[in-house]
Write a structure and sequence with these properties.
With about 350 residues, the chain is of the alpha/beta class. It contains nine helices and 15 strands.
Length: about 350
Amino acid sequence: MRLHRTSRTVLALVAVVALSAGASACGRSGSKSGSGGKIGIDFPRSDSDFWNSYAKYVNQDVKDQKLDALTPTNSNNKTDVLVSNVATLTGQGAKAVVMAPQDTGAIASTLEDLAGKKIPVVSVDTRPDKGQVYMVVRADNRAYGEKACKFLGDKLKNTGTVVEFEGDLTSINGRDRSEAFGDCMSKTYPGIKVLAEATDWKGDTAAAKLQDALNAGTVNGIYMQAGGVFLAPTISLLQQKNLLVPPTDPKHIFIVSNDGIPAEFAAIKAGQIDATVSQPADLYAKYGLYYAQQALAGKTFSPGPTDHGSTIIQLPNGLEDQLPAPLVTADNVGDPSLWGNQVGK
């Protein structure tokens, strides 16, 4: 059964005028924003290895392609700061904006304002609940939850207790991962008890709730919705409890994460965690900037498969390019094509 310590409030998507569709999606052409205008970029936070890697990829791509981009801002996980940053960027002449709003329900008025000014928005990793977007560049986050569920469910053979570190439920990512994981567990592995713990993407909150769960009884599995913030405190706590043991040990707690950062790969190789779903930080940067350039060039896209292994889907308020996000285990953790194995090279 699934125990909720906080209610899952699903914010309804409000239909707005959809982005007009035209030419089919294409891969990155390397075209510059040129005379189309400047690109404004806001980084969402700097307290996560994943987002710090994303920022590095963006800065490198801007430099390598000589893009006409303004100096990026950082909203530090605060909607009011993001709103202020967007005003600053547009005041500096941004004609397209790349952002990653962490509270996907609170950015609608800013998006509506930008649409009124005919400034296209590319939203990376998160899908705004309301407000028009040119393109969302994101992986299928429901698939994250489903992959984590199937991995843990099979490993635990439909028995035991799993602690789930939910992301912030004001974020579409937190909701998608949580709902998909919960639905999959209740339907496919009803013998597993899930402790769904709200964390607001905070590592210390997750560690405290894991401590409570361990004090209350045996924990057999953990689903961490963001390794960038949850990995280190989880590993530290399990070490203190002498529970960081190999998969061959009966006390082993099976752990699946989300992000695909190098630290997760190292933990998989060390037998500390068992799997992660790799969010493509490199592709988020690549295609976030790509679609900003295409928007400035007046290009349009239609739902359907792309030539870069993804699928564009129609949203009530725009389009979304759903990039692939593979499950990484001990079997494929050394794959050189994974962005987590390319960092620093």
